[in-house]
Amino acid sequence: MTSSEQTSPQAAPRWARSIARGVRCAVARGRRPASSTTLTREGGYYLLVFVLVLGGAVMREVNLLLILAGMMAGPVVLGWWATGRSLKRLKVQRRVPESVCAGDLIVGQIQVHNQRARHGSWALVVEDSLERIGNSHANGRRSGPQRLRPAVLFPYVPAGQSRRATYRGRLPERGKYRLGPLRLSSQFPFGLLRKTLAVGNQETLTVYPRLGRLTRRWLARHHEAFSGTHRRERRHGSEGDFFGVRPWQPGDPMRWIHWRSTARTGAPVVRQFEQPRNRDVAVVVELWQPAAPEEPDRENVELAASFAATVIADLCRRGGSDLLLATPADRPHVTRGPASAALMHTMMEQLAVVEAHAGDRLPEVLDAALRRIDSGTEVILVSTRPVGLADTARFDAVAADPARRAALRRIRVVDASHPDLEAYYRAD
């Protein structure tokens, strides 16, 4: 095509330009937040009186009533315009923690920023939404409301400024929750109409199992099991037996300085120490419940998850060992790593989403855990029912291997349904 045959945008037919503008406007409207305008209860009463006055004016041909009806229509039109204007160019942000423990206080912070150069916004309400993702851990039954809708009020947000407000609450059940989207609404100035905008993105909140407190009896029992082994591994630390020397670093105590090496090298040198490594621990969790669970069965499930989470949190705080957590799923979910804060959050999230089940998945989970641990690892089995590990027919895959069969006899079983659990664990 030659240059003389090319058609410029200005030379395009008028109907084509109109269609293009319509498409651009439709796309622009699609990018805007979803909005809706509804009548409030007061607005409904006001509209009823307006219809009665207007109907009487038309039927009776009373001019004064017709004038009154016209005057009553003014606040509706003005309210519709003012309500829509007050929500323009407002930016809403939410700030909540990524994870909490069940029963802990959750503080959500909402910030509204007015991006307009003039004209503030009055009587803004921001409503959040919290809903559990997936099925409940109690066989489809929920002990609390399925959806929570906390809301905060902003009396006035000046032009070019921001205002913050917070809401507080507690989630009693572990799991993953979906937050949002936020709903920004206003009834200003007359309260007859409510305009609502869906703003903000959806976020995810993970609720870990409730953490309790391990008693001295449990800690003493764990120490006795550790003392019964002679396995020790070395790692660098701050105190212990003399291991070597290294250059001095800011923050090292003066008592660590090795004066003879310092005098020989002419630079400060400190001693290094070695510490005995704590015994590695594997925690296997079985959240069994009947096909038609009752309230005590559901309580045992949450108690077992809470106890396992408390043990893992305590071991991660102590450090110095490798931890393994095995839980049932479509395939056994096994997590392993050195004890640390990062590993604790990973394992807590694993315990937050593990579901109770009515089938016997313990042999499969136990076999997957024993395949990935060393011979001297302490294994703790947390279950919601009594477990007989001597049943070779039930654990045939484990009993077929001599090393795993020997580890099977050393497993410590914790039955969450047994009253003796109170001697080792207290739910705060």
What does this protein look like?
With 428 residues, the chain is α+β, with helices and mostly antiparallel strands. The protein has three domains: 32-208, Immunoglobulins (Immunoglobulin-like); 236-276, no CATH class; 278-426, von Willebrand factor, type A domain (Rossmann fold), CATH 3.40.50.410. Helices cover 32% and strands 29% of the residues. The strands form six sheets. Strands 1-12-11-5-8 form a five-stranded antiparallel beta sheet. A hairpin with a 6-residue loop joins strand 11 (182-186) and strand 12. The longest helix has 24 residues, at 63-86.
Produce the secondary structure layout:
Layout: H1 14-31, E1 35-39, H2 41-60, H3 63-86, E2 90-95, E3 99-101, E4 105-114, E5 121-127, E6 130-132, E7 147-148, E8 151-157, E9 162-170, E10 175-179, E11 182-186, E12 193-199, E13 203-208, E14 213-214, H4 216-227, E15 234-237, E16 241-247, H5 259-265, E17 269-276, E18 281-286, H6 295-318, E19 322-327, E20 333-338, H7 341-353, H8 362-370, E21 378-383, H9 396-399, H10 402-409, E22 412-415, E23 425-426
Parallel strand pairs: 3-13, 18-19, 18-21, 21-22
Antiparallel strand pairs: 1-12, 2-4, 4-9, 5-8, 5-11, 6-7, 6-10, 10-13, 11-12, 14-23, 15-17, 16-17, 19-20
Helix pairs in contact: 2-3, 6-7
In short:
The protein is α+β, with helices and mostly antiparallel strands and 428 residues long.
Largest sheet features: 5 strands, antiparallel
CATH superfamily of the largest domain: Immunoglobulins
SSE-based structural type: alpha+beta
- The percent range for strand residues is 25-35%
CATH architecture of the largest domain: Sandwich
CATH fold descriptor of the largest domain:
Immunoglobulin-like
Count the E strands. Answer: 23
Mean pLDDT: 83
Q: How far is the N terminus from the C terminus?
A: 82 Å
- Radius of gyration (CA) equals 33 Å
| Widest beta sheet: strand line-up | 1-12-11-5-8
Number of discrete domains: 3
Which shape, going by the Cα principal axes?
elongated
CATH class of the largest domain: Mainly Beta
